[in-house]
Write a structure and sequence with these properties.
about 5% strand, 12 helices, two-stranded antiparallel ribbon, Rhomboid-like fold, single chain, about 280 residues, mainly alpha, two-stranded antiparallel sheet, globular
Length: about 280
């Protein structure tokens, strides 16, 4: 019980990115524990994961509509989970440091939702997928949404890759192009979902700039609410100064910022701040 209490306290004190990662890890481990218990008691395995995977067949999807969202919290294996969570931790914390706790939920969840929709729609309109019954799991669409929201906001932010610095927008575009050209080579549904996540991440940022909130999860936002231009006031924000601060975050971390720099980022990023 003490261990459970410690886990609960750790979860409560974690930031939004860490909470998403913790949930994904728990969801990954739980079916494995159930499988082990059933094996020890010589009971036939129950495929729990299949109840939450999204399917391209609309006849099957209609009987588990929750899967349009839940698929994003299950993974096919350790490395699938590891790379998704590593990217989410890295880019998600950058996004959170700029915009605060709540936005990461909006962007990630919208990425999962629209990535799933993009996958289902594509499998039902493109002739190449006719007759194919496909299932999909993984958080990659949500991660791509986070990456494209961040890279669209600050495309010139530089990321250290071994011994060279690469602009964030180049990393995002490279991953997007990689997904596009790999569609014919297998895991087509996964690549299509990634593209859907990237698209909604980009569109969310653009609509936020224009004053329209695209987010769908009412617990974290006010759906459809127009944001007044005076709240954004981007004309008074120096993009070069923002890029310089973001470069500093990339090189030395958020804690290296001065109080003035943190306040400036907060002013620039907190577009939908509550009154």
């Amino acid at each position: 019980m003490e261990l459970i209490s410690k886990i609960e306290n750790y979860y409560r004190n974690s930031n939004s990115v860490q909470k998403i990662i913790i949930i994904n890890i728990i969801v990954f481990i739980f079916p494995l524990i159930i499988k082990t218990i059933l094996h020890l008691f010589n009971i036939d395995n129950i495929d729990i994961v299949s109840l939450f995977t999204i399917e391209s067949d609309l006849k099957n999807l209609i009987f588990k509509p929750w899967s349009i969202f839940t698929y994003g919290f299950f993974h096919a294996g350790f490395y699938h989970l590891f790379w998704n969570m590593l990217m989410l931790y890295y880019f998600g914390n950058m996004l959170q440091n700029i915009f605060g706790d709540k936005l990461i939920y909006r962007v990630f969840f919208n990425g999962i939702l629209f990535g799933g929709l993009f996958y289902v729609i594509s499998y039902n309109i493109f002739p190449v997928f006719k007759g194919n019954v496909s299932q999909m799991i993984g958080a990659s669409a949500g991660v791509m949404a986070v990456l494209f929201y961040l890279s669209s906001y600050s495309p010139n932010m530089r990321i250290r890759f071994f011994i060279i610095d690469i602009k964030l927008i180049y990393i995002a575009l490279f991953l997007l192009i990689l997904d596009i050209i790999q569609i014919p080579n297998g895991n087509s549904g996964g690549h299509i979902a990634h593209i859907g996540g990237a698209l909604i991440g980009y569109l969310m940022l653009k609509y936020n700039y224009q004053g329209l909130d695209l987010s769908l999860f009412s617990s974290f936002l006010k759906s459809g609410k127009k944001i007044k231009n005076k709240d954004l006031d981007f004309n008074k924000i120096d993009q070069k100064k923002i890029d310089k601060i973001l470069d500093k975050i990339s090189e030395s971390g958020y804690d290296s910022l001065s109080k003035e720099e943190k306040n400036y980022l907060f002013k620039a990023g907190n577009k939908d701040k509550k009154k």
